[in-house]
Design a protein that fits this description.
The protein is an alpha+beta fold. Helices cover about 30% and strands about 30% of the residues.
Length: about 120
Amino acid sequence: MNNKELNAFLTNKTPHAIELLNHFINEYNSIGALDIRITKSMIAFNRDRGIAYVIQIGKEFIDIVLPFNKPMEDNMCFRKIKQVPGTSQYNHHLRLYFRDDVNEEVKHYMELAYQNGDSSRYL
């Protein structure tokens, strides 16, 4: 990850939102090594493939998408699950307001997404 690109992406973001993003990054780094790429519209977390995407940074929240090959409907953390048209991928949308929102259930799904980032597996 290029810190200059990240700093530019975070221009005009609130300290609270930046703290949430840093916490999410640190939680993923505790699971395992990954590559973080910044685009004009999002921050992508990758292994062999994308495992998570920060798609919006609001004043008091960050929106994250975790992709899976099936809907993980038995949960309390995703606010929306939507199939990507023309694919077998389901995007699971999560909104974090507080550091504690990265609870055991969210960490479980982060770990599953991390495992999916290995091209030899995909859930």
